[in-house]
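Marked as duplicate of an earlier ticket. Keeping the data here for the record.
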Amino acid sequence: MISRSLLAAGGAVALPACLAFAAAAPDGPAPGGGDREVPAVNRAILEGAKIWLARGARYDAAYFEIPYPDGDVPQDRGACVDLIVRALRHAGIDLQRLLHEDRAAHPAAYVTRRRLDPNLDHRLTVNHLAYFRRHARSLTTRADPEHLPEWLPGDLVYYGRSRVWHAGVVSDRASASGVPYIIDSHQDAGGVSDRYLLTRWGPIIGHFRVEER
């Protein structure tokens, strides 16, 4: 997640904290996914997100210099975007390399005018949106009962409100009414959590299903 005011800035930055808020499920958790077929890549993404949930990486959106490709911020920390990157990498997808290369080849597809930076390109939510809108399957952003079956565990969800964005992985847990939980990294819980969030953070501006590569 990053504020719009930073998009045109250059140099190293500290990523602003995700402004997510805790919300209790109105009717308690229940297994999600039902009898729907979940693609293998979704299962791997979900497994990756759960690994970082179990590790308890604390929230930290600071800028880090990291290796390229296959680079990562320190293992004991990360922001919402780092959870996405790590979950995808568990599925064999190096978003750091793919997004950096795509932005270099297609700069007009990206809103940000920052210089190319392999330490940061894949850690900006706005860049995720630009990449996945062109390289993943875009799905419904509605979360009413009619459209809930279109949300599968391992899908990616992106939110936008005011001057901030946020992102998470759809969980295999859901409320009793079928609203899926979201695995995300956020400041109010201090790190990664699996919680009732889909309809609570703000407007949903992206829902993507990553294809196997």
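See parent ticket for discussion. Residues 40-55 form the longest helix (16 residues).
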